[in-house]
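Inverse folding, one chain.
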């Protein structure tokens, strides 16, 4: 029988910024199932909207746990926003999608990359910590 241990660390300022970005993206996806694509318009199917809502909830809960130092939760939050972003990629390949939607998907890609990078960026080590190591 194996036990899984969860590492708890205090997130750095940069990691907290990444968590805030991930939390905002997750929260923005929660109501997506309540706003279906109007009849006759191009847009995501209801299944994709439902997945976005579920991943939004999962991501938001994971961000809260990661903020408290749970490193596994940070990974779950990252996976949730990456999958949500991937569901938007067809907007670049389907005809008839308005330019505004394509721009929004492009912004979400940059937002996701920034959030994930910041969430897992190693804390910066300043000169004071370098001097302490030399002693």
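Residues assigned per position:
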């Amino acid at each position: 029988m194996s036990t899984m241990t969860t590492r708890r660390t205090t997130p750095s300022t940069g990691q907290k910024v990444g968590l805030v970005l991930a939390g905002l993206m997750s929260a923005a996806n929660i109501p997506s199932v309540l706003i279906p694509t109007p009849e006759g318009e191009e847009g995501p199917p209801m299944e994709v909207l439902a997945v976005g809502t579920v991943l939004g909830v999962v991501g938001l809960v994971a961000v809260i746990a990661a903020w408290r130092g749970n490193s596994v939760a940070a990974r779950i939050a990252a996976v949730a926003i990456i999958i949500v972003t991937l569901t938007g990629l067809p907007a670049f390949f389907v005809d008839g999608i308005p330019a505004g939607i394509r721009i929004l998907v492009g912004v979400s890609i940059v937002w996701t990359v920034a959030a994930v990078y910041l969430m897992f960026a190693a804390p910066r080590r300043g000169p004071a910590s370098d001097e302490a190591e030399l002693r």
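Helices lie at 13-29, 46-67, 71-88, 99-120, 127-134. Residues 44-121 form one domain.
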